[in-house]
Amino acid sequence: xxxxxxxxxxxxxxxxxxxxxxxxxxxxxxxxxxxxxxxxxxxxxxxxxxxxxxxxxxxxxxxxxxxxxxxxxxxxxxxxxxxxxxxxxxxxxxxxxxxxxxxxxxxxxxxxxxxxxxxxxxxxxxxxxxxxxxxxxxxxxxxxxxxxxxxxxxxxxxxxxxxxxxxxxxxxxxxxxxxxxxxxxxxxxxxxxxxxxxxxxxxxxxxxxxxxxxxxxxxxxxxxxxxxxxxxxxxxxxxxxxxxxxxxxxxxxxxxxxxxxxxxxxxxxxxxxxxxxxxxxxxxxxxxxxxxxxxxxxxxxxxxxxxxxxxxxxxxxxxxxxxxxxxxxxxxxxxxxxxxxxxxxxxxxxxxxxxxxxxxxxxxxxxxxxxxxxxxxxxxxxxxxxxxxxxxxxxxxxxxxxxxxxxxxxxxxxxxxxxxxxxxxxxxxxxxxxxxxxxxxxxxxxxxxxxxxxxxxxxxxxxxxxxxxxxxxxxxxxxxxxxxxxxx
Length: 488
Ligand code: AMP
Ligand code: ZN
Known about the structure:
By secondary structure, this protein is of the alpha/beta class. It has 16 helices and 15 strands. 46% of the residues lie in helices and 15% in strands. Strands 4-3-9-10 form a 4-stranded parallel β-sheet, sandwiched between helices. The protein has a 4-stranded antiparallel β-sheet with strand order 5-6-7-8. Strands 12-11-13 form a 3-stranded mixed β-sheet. Helix 4 crosses helix 7, helix 7 packs across helix 8 and helix 11 packs across helix 13. The chain is globular and about 80 Å long. Bound molecules: adenosine monophosphate and zinc ion. The site of adenosine monophosphate (AMP) has 16 residues, from helix 1 and strand 9.
């Protein structure tokens, strides 16, 4: 089985060869934590969660690093009034690190709701200022960067003059970039408009600031990711991911910084996830065309007819390939809900199927498994994988109707393979089972309260609890071992 990955750098599907056999180092750009993540952001993180789960399922030992951009995802002009962190601190009347904490907690809650696994390392930009200063110094020492008025810029023309190619990832030509730029960022400080900040001098009003050899300032956004990925994954690592929109300038600059610092390409496989759209327009806070995850899950919005469980949202996202645009709509969500229900029904049926070793089955389990793994290893093709899972669903319904048979060995294999794909790889959750667990926990609380009422001789209350539950079809039974319940 060979894993193929589409590499944005070469624009080709390539056979994946990890640096260290059996191991994968993967870095994904994390969120800027100055406000709540919208559903579009969730799609990108979910795409990489699926990739992480798939790599693990395929037997790789993955070190997955996803950072938190907490130092300020700053505008290159360094104007404090354009800094989104600063704006938010003023708006909410909070300290910058309070803003960071508030939205980091929210980010984790949201990803947990969609059953995303945590990364192995989650470094913060502010925790790596020393490393960023060191990298900046190294770039100055090697002539790739220059100081200007307390700020330090990467010299893009110098980089190209040394035979390197700024623009190799985004396929931009440096001459065109110069010709088309109307960017006045750092005007007067930079040698060229395309030069980007490695370190920015802090104006007196700037709150997040650190000492450096160039005076008080703060790091450039692109350098944060280079510092953290190098520290935890090395000068060259296997996979770097992020949303399509980060290709330029963010990832282009990361390549330039890595090559200039270490003389080697920092990443072997660049992976970019495509955008979530709504009303056929990219979801984005700045245009107002967005929905927050909680609004979709609670039903408190004007766009969707009803509320949807997070796992249905997850299923909907995975029905599109990570490199395709996905337009979220009421119809798409309803279709996903229907498909998901059928899939769960099939899994339930599978537990009650009796095997038959006498008859030959018309369904080749081996062929089916091969097709599933071919889809998974073909650049993580989740929609094709899901289509194959539904072939198994069809077969399971035929088993139920006794139109098909399955041997005992194949039945075990089908159960474990299907469960692994549905729960471990796709990361879906069985809503019904979860609900049952919740019901059980709630009933245990009520039984405990009834026991307390009885102990304090409040028989009115204890009888009320028993009778009201009975009216709802839940019968409490008192025995020597304690109280149990029966659902009628
Ligand atoms: P940010 O916090 O703005 O850096 O965004 C976090 C991640 O969400 C980045 O990888 C972005 O590329 C990604 N992203 C932003 N908007 C969308 C969208 N509409 N659909 C999918 N991913 C998005
Ligand atoms: Zn990044």
